[in-house]
Design a protein that fits this description.
single chain, 477 residues
Length: 477
């Protein structure tokens, strides 16, 4: 095992020696590590003085953890330039050929660069956080609990791995340092938006939800590392000299994968659609399993939390809520406001949202959206059960008539998104990453246009004009 890992250390040591000689990287990193905690400490002091006027104790308690989160982020952004030029920078300097001609395996080269890219910003972030905590302790401010500090350190580590691994992927796919630096915004901006959500969790004081954020960021980071290894090709680094957006090639590649060898609609369904569906067998099984988990989670969450909310409400309000759920006229007026086109467009937007979320997260966020959508069924079961309304008749009359079309469409579309994520992290020799993405989008478009849209159209018509009649008949019994 050591024989395999020792070359990784050799690459890391070589990169570390070069980086320690580069004052252009070390100087801003050292300045930021020392002076940014002082700046944040002064900001925290001024904020404390202001909030003390309004007795905002909750915000005050969470101000130090928020500062730790921000302090750990900034050194990573400065060190990102090292990862961005890890491969393309050596290509421009003419030092990449000896490295690529070495007997090292691809994963050893990649991990050698990755370890240094993660090690430097993490050391700077941890030192900066430690310096800040020392200042907080000397000023007599309340220190956050140890488990929150542990959460923030793990989250900082996950941020570093996520951003550095994404930067190395960009460095491998770029043809110049300038292009790699321009693409850095696609790393910094999404992570900054992600940190805004994490900051909200900190101020809410919900540590359990923050652990979910830690798990999500860690999964994304590991997936990006896997993508980098899967699409790292030495000959690709040496063969490309300039990036060109060839719209004709993109359109032709997409159309050939979308149409296949079919010359008619029947052939398209019989050959092209069938071949795409065969790829979705395993993802569809996973989607069904996730659906069962989502329904159970939705049901369990409502059963565990809704009674607490209902116990705080007056009994007459609870009885009125249950009565409203049984009121047929209000139900009919509500259903009349939802036409079939509206329902179809709403469901179509949901499917496109799952695709977009999946593309930017290797299917993770897309599957989360699917989990939330399918979990609503379990939540409705639990809510009706707590209100004393039999859930099964309502499900059979209010969900099943259109659900036999809508739920399979949701599952098939989500399975296609899951397949995209799996294919992106799977090595495919002889193809560039761009070509793989185009082919995957063509597969998704085939499934979406050929299967999902017809199912959603039928489901919308039934949900608008048939389901209300069945549901009203059940409620009037």
């Amino acid at each position: 095992m050591w024989d395999k890992l020792f070359p990784v250390w050799l690459v890391t040591r070589r990169e570390l020696r070069d980086q320690l000689r580069d004052w252009r990287v070390l100087t801003p990193l050292i300045i930021l590590t020392i002076f940014f905690p002082i700046l944040m400490n002064e900001f925290a002091r001024m904020t404390v003085d202001f909030l003390n006027q309004y007795n905002a104790n909750l915000i005050l308690d969470r101000l130090v953890p928020f500062s730790i989160l921000i302090i750990g982020f900034f050194p990573i952004t400065v060190s990102l330039v090292v990862a961005l030029e890890s491969f393309v920078g050596e290509k421009e300097r003419g030092t990449i050929e000896p490295l690529l001609s070495s007997p090292l395996e691809n994963w050893q080269l990649y991990f050698g660069k990755l370890l240094l890219g993660v090690f430097t910003p993490l050391m700077a972030s941890f030192l900066s956080i430690f310096f800040y905590l020392v200042m907080v302790d000397r000023q007599g401010l309340d220190m956050p609990p140890w488990y929150i500090i542990l959460q923030l350190l793990i989250l900082t580590t996950a941020h570093a791995i996520l951003m550095v691994s994404a930067a190395i992927v960009i460095s491998v796919q770029s043809t110049s340092v300038k292009a790699a630096n321009l693409l850095a915004s696609f790393i910094v901006i999404p992570v900054a938006v992600l940190m805004q959500g994490e900051a909200v969790m900190l101020f809410w004081g919900n540590e359990d939800v923050l652990w979910l954020a830690v798990a999500g960021v860690t999964i994304l980071a590991l997936l990006i590392v896997r993508v980098g290894i899967a699409h790292f090709q030495r000959e690709y680094l040496l063969g490309r000299e300039i990036d060109v957006i060839n719209m004709r090639w993109i359109g032709r590649t997409f159309w050939m994968n979308f149409k296949g060898d079919a010359h008619s609609i029947a052939e398209w369904y019989g050959s092209s659609i069938r071949s795409s569906l065969r790829k979705l067998v395993t993802p569809s099984m996973l989607i069904v399993l996730i659906a069962g988990i989502g329904i159970w989670l939705g049901y369990d969450w409502i059963i565990q939390n809704l009674p607490t909310a209902l116990s705080k409400a007056p009994p007459e309000e609870v009885a009125k809520l249950a009565e409203r759920a049984r009121e047929t006229p209000e139900l009919m007026r509500l259903r009349e406001s939802f036409s079939a086109p509206f329902l179809f467009m709403n469901n179509t937007r949901a499917m496109v949202s799952i695709l977009v979320a999946g593309l930017v997260s290797f299917s993770v966020l897309g599957i989360v959206l699917y989990l939330v959508n399918i979990g609503l069924i379990g939540g409705l079961f639990g809510a009706f059960e707590l209100l004393g309304i039999p859930p099964w008749p309502l499900f059979l009359g209010g969900v099943l008539p259109h659900g036999v079309f809508e739920i399979p469409a949701l599952m098939i579309g989500s399975a296609a998104v899951l397949y995209i994520g799996v294919a992106l992290v799977t090595p495919q020799t002889g193809k560039s990453m761009g070509e793989i993405v185009i082919e995957l989008l063509a597969d998704w478009a085939k499934i979406f246009i050929g299967i999902v849209i017809p199912l959603l159209a039928v489901a919308a018509v039934i949900e608008a004009y048939v389901t209300p009649l069945i549901l009203v008949a059940i409620l009037q019994r």
